[in-house]
């Protein structure tokens, strides 16, 4: 198991897992939601500040495996400045990337962002870790919907 996972732990995951970006609480967050992946024990709380329909700031706190923390770190970096629609689009296509290892439906939209998220695409080979990678994005969708609790589905 450990040897297999090593391929997955690319530098980006290790870097973001050790030093998560945007790892803080937004005290006056416009939107927030908790995410829980009991399969692995990953838990997080996501905070969003909105300016109209645009995500002005995104931050999270939580604890979990390196993949869940790295994914949340990358997610908050990626959605900052995006509209809610763009963020939902990224969530849907990140999910496809995590489940299949590629995203033929992305069609070149937000290419730079999808390239960056590619760092986590290796999880598709490890079905039990897919939920670790997608938890942050489920939590994002839940927060954008005005919900409070996201499960790893
Ligand atoms: Zn995990």
Describe this structure in words.
This protein is of the alpha+beta class and about 150 residues long. It has a single domain, classed as Sufe protein. Chain: A (Alpha-Beta Complex), CATH 3.90.1010. It is about 45% helix and about 20% strand. It is built from 6 helices and 4 strands; from the N terminus they run ααβββααααβ. The chain has helices at about 1-10, 10-20, 65-80, 85-100, 110-115, 125-145; strands at about 30-35, 40-50, 55-65, 150. It has a 4-stranded mixed β-sheet, covered by helices on one side. A hairpin with a 2-residue loop joins strand 2 (about 40-50) and strand 3. Helix 2 (about 10-20) packs across helix 3, helix 3 packs parallel to helix 6 and helix 4 (about 85-100) runs antiparallel to helix 6. It is globular. The relative contact order is 0.21. The model has no long low-confidence stretch (mean pLDDT about 90). The structure holds zinc ion (ZN). Zinc ion (ZN) binds near residues 37, 65, 68 and 132. Zinc ion (ZN) binds near residues 40, 67 and 68.
């Amino acid at each position: 198991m450990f040897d297999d996972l090593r391929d997955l732990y690319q530098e980006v995951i290790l870097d973001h897992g050790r030093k998560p970006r945007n790892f803080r609480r937004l005290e006056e967050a416009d939107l927030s939601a908790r995410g829980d992946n009991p399969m692995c024990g990953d838990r997080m709380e996501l905070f969003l500040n909105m300016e109209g329909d645009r995500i002005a700031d995104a931050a999270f706190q939580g604890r979990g495996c390196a993949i869940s923390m790295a994914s949340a770190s990358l997610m908050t970096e990626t959605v900052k400045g995006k509209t809610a629609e763009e963020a939902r689009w990224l969530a849907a296509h990140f999910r496809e990337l995590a489940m299949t290892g590629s995203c033929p439906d992305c069609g070149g939209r937000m290419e730079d962002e999808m390239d960056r998220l590619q760092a986590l695409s290796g999880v598709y080979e490890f079905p039990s870790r897919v939920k670790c990678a997608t938890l942050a994005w489920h939590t994002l969708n839940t927060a954008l919907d005005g919900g409070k609790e996201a499960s790893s589905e």
